[in-house]
Design a protein that fits this description.
By secondary structure, the protein is mainly beta. Among the domains are: about 250 residues, lipopolysaccharide transport protein A fold; about 160 residues, no CATH class; about 90 residues, no CATH class. About 0% of the residues lie in helices and about 55% in strands. It contains two helices and 43 strands. The strands form two sheets. It has a 31-stranded antiparallel beta sheet that branches.
């Protein structure tokens, strides 16, 4: 019987005999488990796992997502062809010419489809295409399947899938089209699919570019959905068609699972510090909300080093613990061993949990037995912020804290301890900070026609040794501060704006173990009432497509000059900079210990130009005046005299992606540069980076500063560029770090050759340099890279 047109079957009304539906359903589904484009290695070491799911103590019932709506009723089947033939004598049902069958969201297309009604075998030939419900597709020239889908074969198989992968440069993830092809695809069982003579690549392949930038070729690729694993046999990684790596067996997690235990991407390093170093991470998935990464590091010059990273999520928070251990002697930059062997270890842990909708609590635990352990063993990101408070570079902070927050109230209570890793740090001089309390209340209704804010702060510091005299015990201090600030706004018809304010602050200090032989303990109180007004008068003018704003700003501050009690230690305002950010602040010091008081008159002029296209430029010049000098403010700030240093600042964005910035502080008499910071941020299609220069006549330690730091990439050609990252101290002529490299990149590969140099001396570790190589493949993350011994911090993207 020969028919033309289409056939539609549903559960409500179906043909008496429907072997064709079963046959084409088998054909449409059997190739679906064929290998999806999963990389042969696990996720990148820097972020090897997706975020762990938060466990729900009351899970919702499981919901089965229905297939996409194809216009058919539940269980409906649709087939269309130029010709349909039901050959009862030959026991076959045939569809010829532009065959299309749809069932349960999946579509099968072919030139010819033949179903054997006796054996149940389905044969599809000629440009066979299977489109899955997720939009992915598989292609072959022919496919043979059985009725139960327990066996099937596809010849000249290929597929193209779009997956989202993390870009190795640190940019946002972008979709990457992945191609996979094989001479044949065999489905020997419902859970196993085999691809013979297969090739995998995320790179574009076309007639003009038949050789992808990189690919994997394997004699056989096996996907086992029951074991949730994919195995490559006799696999080769090719770059531009040239084999660069071979392995007899390579395995990867199945794409249907987010995480699976197994080996992660290794790290290889060759240096004078540790010799040849190989680190192989292993991921152990303990549960859907818990995992462990064990990373043994094998070195030729020194003993092995073990890194571990344990993570667990709870229904109310999460915890992450990194740690490392070795048993080794001290050793220098050349790997020469010194002294006796001993245990050396570190821990970097953090956790944060929700008590309820408003209360949180958390902790960090950061400690090391060797201040150079991170440099020696290349431990990544040891000095990042993990908790509520962060320490300086090369210092670790352990803390416990709790916070409460609602729209008009914030409260935090914390305790912390700092470990110094700099060569000049003396651990006994670092205080134990417990507690540290900060609070802010700001009612959401006007008070006397203005905004009222009440803040409170309290801290207790306990130290064992005086920072200035090792023979003396350290001063223990406890401080409590309460401050009320009120401010309102009035605008006159001519545009002048007045912002009157009133500020009342009180401090109480309780000091113990003072250096004075006769006065070892003291209780000190001080108060500071302040009143004043900010006055601004902006002028606007349009010039063609530009908006020009000129704005004179003045501030009058009236307060008594409060004597700074020399017994109060300056703990929180040591690094005090006077610039445009605090020119109009009532208290210019960053902390509480140093009090800025006395009558002041602050004045500045601002100018801003904004184009209709969004380009802009702005500049400010100003200074501060006092009726009497304030000898308690450090002279180096340029703020202690009756006339302050000149403050200047400017920034501009003349084109999209480019931003220039600069700030200056010039001596009030000689106009010499006491402080300068200038640089540019630049982000275009070919360049992304920043350069910044800092010059200071005298820092908090009394030393001059002249530094430059920069990082960025410049692509001179479409795919070829140079990279740089550096920090240089001109006063000492030392490169704290310098990386210069040549980069090749396209949408599926990135190759870097890096030269690294470090001139600093840190304990027994001296200057070092080296050459490194990095290879990153799309879908593989940072697959292969090596670092010189000088590179102790990750290079910014």
């Amino acid at each position: 019987m020969v028919m033309g047109g289409r056939l539609e079957l549903t559960r409500a009304g179906h043909c008496e005999r429907h072997p064709l539906r079963a046959a084409l359903l088998a054909g449409a589904l059997a190739l679906a488990p064929v290998l999806a484009p999963t990389p042969a290695l696990a996720s990148p070491r820097e972020n090897p796992l997706p975020p762990l799911p938060v466990l729900n103590p009351h899970p919702a019932p499981k919901v089965i997502t229905p297939p996409p709506d194809d216009g058919l009723e539940a269980g409906g089947f649709y087939i269309e062809a130029n010709q349909l033939i039901d050959d009862e004598t030959g026991h076959t049902v045939q569809a010829h010419g532009q065959v299309e069958a749809r069932y349960n969201g999946r579509t099968l297309r072919a030139n010819d489809v033949v179903y054997d009604t006796q054996t149940g075998v389905v044969t599809a030939k000629g440009d066979v295409t299977i489109v899955n419900p997720d939009g992915t597709a598989e292609f072959s020239q022919s496919a043979v399947l059985d009725r139960e889908m327990s066996a099937g074969v596809a010849m000249a198989f290929s597929t193209r899938l779009k997956e989202t992968f993390r870009q190795t440069s640190g940019a946002a993830a972008q979709p990457v089209e992945v191609s996979i092809a094989a001479a044949s695809a065999v489905h020997p069982s419902p859970t196993v699919t085999e691809l013979n003579q297969a090739i995998f690549t995320p790179c574009p392949v076309c007639a003009k570019k038949p050789t992808p930038t990189w690919s994997i070729k394997a004699d056989k690729v096996i996907r086992d959905t029951k074991r949730q694993v994919i195995i490559f046999r006799n696999a080769k990684i090719l770059v531009r068609g040239v084999p660069i790596f071979w392995t007899p067996v390579l395995s990867a997690p199945d794409p249907s699972v987010k995480r699976k235990s197994g080996l992660l991407i290794p790290e290889l390093n060759i240096s004078t510090l540790r010799g040849l170093s190989y680190e192989q991470p292993y991921l152990q998935v303990i549960s859907p909300s818990e995992d462990l990464i064990v990373s043994p590091q094998i070195n030729t010059k020194v003993n092995p080093f073990l890194n571990v990273d344990w993570r667990k999520r709870f229904y109310d928070g999460a915890i992450d613990v990194r740690a490392g251990y070795t048993y080794e002697q001290d050793f220098n930059s050349d790997g020469d061993k010194l002294g006796n062997a001993t245990s050396r270890s570190y821990i970097l842990a953090k956790g944060q949990f929700a008590i309820n909708d408003n209360w949180d609590w958390g902790f960090t635990a950061e400690r090391t037995s060797d201040p150079l352990i991170f440099d020696r063993y290349g431990v990544a990101d040891p000095f990042i912020q993990r908790g509520l408070y962060s320490a300086d570079d090369r210092r670790l902070i352990s803390q416990g804290y709790s916070t409460y927050q609602i729209p008009d109230l914030y409260l935090s209570v914390a305790a912390m301890d700092v470990q110094g890793l700099r060569a000049t740090d003396v651990q006994a001089t670092f205080p134990l900070i417990a507690p540290l309390i900060e609070a802010r209340w700001e009612p959401d209704v006007p008070v006397l026609g203005g905004r009222l804010r009440i803040t409170g702060s309290g801290v207790a510091l306990t130290r064992d040794e005086s920072p200035t005299d090792p023979s003396q015990p350290g001063t223990d201090s406890r401080r409590g501060t309460v401050e009320a600030n009120w401010q309102s706004t009035f605008i006159l018809p001519n545009g002048i704006r007045f912002d009157p304010f009133v500020d009342i602050r009180g401090d109480v200090y309780s000091l113990a173990e003072l250096p004075s032989p006769t006065d070892r303990n003291a209780t000190i109180t001080r108060g500071l009432p302040t009143a004043g007004v900010n006055v601004t008068w902006p002028f606007f003018r349009r010039v063609d497509t530009l908006t020009v704003v000129l704005e004179p700003v003045a501030q009058v501050v009236l307060s008594p000059l409060v004597r700074q009690d020399p017994r109060i230690p300056n703990e929180d305002s040591v690094d005090f900079q006077f610039d445009e950010t605090n020119l109009f602040q009532i208290q210019k010091a960053p902390g509480y210990d140093l009090l800025d008081s006395g009558p002041q008159f602050n004045v500045a002029g601002r100018a801003t130009v904004i184009s209709d296209q969004g380009y802009y430029a702005s500049a400010l010049i100003g200074r501060s005046f006092r009726t009497t000098p304030n000898p308690f403010i450090p002279v180096r700030t340029g703020l202690s005299g009756t006339t302050s240093d000149w403050i200047m600042a400017a920034d501009a964005s003349p084109i999209n992606g480019v931003n220039f910035f600069s700030r200056w502080r010039l001596d009030s008499d000689s106009f010499t540069v006491n402080y300068m910071e200038t640089g540019v941020d630049w982000t275009t299609s070919r360049f992304d980076g920043q350069i910044r220069y800092i010059q200071e006549a005298q820092d908090a330690t009394g030393q001059p500063v002249q530094d430059i730091d920069f990082h960025g990439e410049l692509f001179i050609l479409k795919n070829w560029g140079i990279s740089a990252y550096g920090a240089r101290e001109f006063t000492s002529g030392v490169w704290r770090q310098a990386d210069f490299g040549i980069v090749y990149r396209d949408q599926c590969i990135r190759v870097e050759i890096l030269y690294n140099r470090n001139d600093t001396n840190n304990g027994v570790l001296g200057p070092s340099s080296g050459v490194g190589f990095r290879l990153s493949l799309a879908t593989f993350g940072n697959s292969v890279y090596s670092r010189s011994e000088a590179e102790t911090q990750p290079v910014p993207p």
